[in-house]
# Entry
Amino acid sequence: MSTVFGDDGSGHITGAVLNPDRPPADVVDLVALTVELTLDGELLWADRTARNLLGQGGPISRGVNWFEHCVDPEYVESNRAHLRRLVEGDGRAPITFEARCRAADGVVYDFHWHAVLARDAERGRIIRMTGALTSTDDPSPTLAAALEQLLDLRYALDRASIVAATDRKGVITYANDTFCAISGYSRDELLGRTHRIVNGGYHPRSFFKKMWATIGRGQVWRGDVCNRAKDGSEYWVATTIVPYLDRNGRPYRYLAIRNDITGRKRAEAALARAVDELEAANQRILDEQSRLLQAEKLSSVGLLAAGVAHEINNPLAGTMACVKQLRDGKVAEHRRATYFDTVLDGLDRIERIVSALLSYARPARTERGPVDVAELIDGCLLLIRPAMHKARVRVDHRRPEPPRFAHGDRQQLMQATMNVLINAVHASPEGGTIRVDHPIDGARVAVRVSDEGPGIPLADVDRVCDPFFSTKPEGTGTGLGLSVTMGIVQAHGGTLHIGRAAPHGAVVSLWLPTSCESPPTIG
# Structure
């Protein structure tokens, strides 16, 4: 006698016992079957194998008593005892036992049964028995042990995963308890239907078209699928579909193994929402920071406006006087070139002052690159010169040789430097000197500003960068200057250091990352 393993159409692992002493018409070609009983032994459900093997259209039908109609009388009592022990126990561990069953046509079959106490959504607790056919003529312990191991594996798989089998058209021929529990449908509602019964419409048709194309080629398909339960709730399953191929390599059955990942998907969705909210909050912070930068910049522009106007009026007055003299023909021919040069110098000075002011006041656009720190200071000094003249303060700017470059956005660094220089002018005594230099420390270069004012009280050193904190008289500052400056420096990967100078005064250093390249030469 030989054994050939196959599939019965219900998704169960099966085999064929070929006995040369039996005529071909009587060959039993399927050896694993599953039945479900009430706790009293009433037959609730039998798979196709059980119906074909034992029923032959006869007594194996729903509602009959399993022990009275299907079990050989010699095994009835022992089988009842086994199942009684299963029901009276905790129901967690399956039991195995031997039994002899008699088909409607009188043929007797010996089975190795594997029984578990299961729970059905509609029928409560039931007994599920999966049997492996054995041969009384040629008992094979190896075959019996192998089948028992397969049944144990199936039991474990049923407990751990959602398992379903379909024919080649996708019609469900087997559904385990876990499938019934998660979908909310009974086994009777699932069998004979396709998986459209749980399709919630989440995925486009192309998703399933691609899936069918894959398994139709005999390849395993894996993916996450969103289904809809009977009560309308959605659930997600990580799915693996394995096609069974015939001798010609064409699929004739599909086994789907799924695992519930609804919790993971909900967590991923919550995380995605949190990320979106954080990005939105971060954008709001950036927008508010940009607004504060512009507000502080415009405040500085207001402070500079009167002085800049005075600074422009001086060359403007000289330029206008020269132009009038030239227009009225009161300039001797040999002096006309000198007058024209004076006009051009005045206009050039006015243009540089206005351009610097407009550049400073313009809303920031981040464009980082190499910035000549000495040239940056010169641009700032051009704008604060009227304030310096008014306060009778001079600036000692020590330009480095060769030039030193920081990496950053020139406009933002100009705003940060301007804030520090204006504070130094306001803090300096009449006739005082502000010193600006550019020390280096490895891969960093600084804009260091020292004044001769009273310095910052020790109690306020840790607070001067707080928003809206100011040591100036009320109404003379916004309290945002150093806060904005620190934000700009930190955004450039630098640090802001504030200390006291000897014997008095304050030292503010803007340490910035250096740039290894200089700006391109124009002209």
